[in-house]
Structures are given as C-alpha cells and as structure tokens.
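Researcher: Predict the fold of NAD(P)-binding domain-containing protein.
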Amino acid sequence: MSDVSAIGLGKMGAALATTLLSSGRSVTVWNRSADKAAALLEAGATLAPSPNAAIAASPVSITCVKTHATTTELLRPLGAALAGKTIIDLSTGGAKEAEELVAMLLAAGARWQIGMINAYPSGIGKPETAILCAGPAEVWAAHGDVVRTLGGASAHVGTEPAAIPGLFAAMFTARQGFMFGLIYGGAVCRKAGLPMEAFAAQVPVTFGMAKNYADLFMRSVPTQSYDDAGATVAVYLAALDDALSTFEATGTTDALPRLMRDLAARGVAEGYAAKELTALVEMLAKD
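Model: Structure tokens for NAD(P)-binding domain-containing protein follow.
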C-alpha cells in the first residue's frame, strides 16, 4: 500500500504528485490518459489501472480534476470501495457541487476535505504557498501534514462543504470588484473629457486606500464592531449620490455605481446610517 494516491495528472495534479514523491512519500497515480504519468513513474510513482485501484492503494487520495462535479462522477461508481478512505478534493467548483460531492462521500463511508490551491503549479511545495481546506477538524488533524507538504502556508479554515467555494467567490468578487471599478471609472473619465493618463496616474493612490479598507474590514467584520465609524454609511451614501450624478450627467453606463448607491441607501433605511460601511455585510447576510 502507498502513502497517498494522486488522481488527475494535469499540470497541477502532476505538480502535486511530484512534490509528494519528493517529500519521500510513496505515491500511486491515476489519470484518464496514462501517458501523462510517464515522468512520475520514472520518479518512483506506481500507476493504478483504474480510479478504484488508486483509491484502494492508499488511505488518503488527493483528487485534482476539472471540477467537484467531475470528482463526483469519477468516484460515485466506486460505492463501498470508498468506505474508510479519505478524499482531499483540490478541484474547483461551486458550493452546490461541493455539497453534492461531500454527500456522496459520506454516504459511501468516506472522510473528506475540500481545498483551494492559491498558487500556480510552479508554487506547489513552496513554504509560502497556501492550500486552504474545509472539512471535519479531525480529518485535517490526521492528514493536514500531507497538505502542508504541498504548500507550507496551508490551513484549515472551515468545516462546511460550501466554505471553500464561498471563500473563492468572496476573494474573486473582491479582486474583480476593483478591476470593474477601474473599468467603470475609466468610462466616466472618458465621457467627462479627462485624459486617461490622469486617471491612470491616480490608481496607485487608490491602491493605498484599498489597504485602508482591508484594515477596516479585518478590524470590524470578524467581531461585528461597526460603531464609532470613521465614515458612516450615511456619509458614503452622500458621496455615492455625487458620483452617480456625474455618471448620469455624462451619460455613462452606471450599473455598478448605482448598485453601490442603492445598497448604501438600503442600509440607511434599515438602520445602519451611523455604522461603518462594512456593517452592510450583516444586512446582506440576512437576505
């Protein structure tokens, strides 16, 4: 029996298997296209002829395929062969897919972790790389060392199947929110006749404000401390009204600033006027 099985040998899966081998662990691998395992076999891995054989070969298996749904499709036929095994799924997907995968694994008697890799394949095995996992705490306690081999900054961040898809959605929304903000900002500047170079020159200033916003978020939301606000929801509403009026006056598409303004207005109407803007987390979470 090997220490770990690696199922899925794309660029990321191959990097995971290579790092496990480099750590001194015995590794069984499986991939739909067996030719992708050639380099790993030369490095000492054992090729399983089927997913069933790969799962049977090790107490813990790391799956890294297209999506959680792909993992479910791949493993569901194994049925009772999953009993007593631990599956660490590092595929991608939404909350519903993660929940369906975990339900299938639990019904088969398997243990589970859902993980998100915050790195390119070249980062696997590095001390600063984080693979964030959610699942039963006792499963993380038993196999977290395997994940930390793949990324030294890896951590257990939750217990629900939807936790990791939720974290991905939150991080993606925050990052892309900044980009789409720049896109809308560029459009209104173009309409207002401002040279785009002048707008672009202010982006570093905005980066500085983003750090302040991050600090405020970390200071207020985890502890739900929204009083004694530096800038209240009401203050933000007034500023958003001013910004929206400029979008309207210049005839610029305003879906994003209007959404922001309407959320602030709703916050004021629902009693958050004197709170920090971050208190809107609580308002939206109640929906």
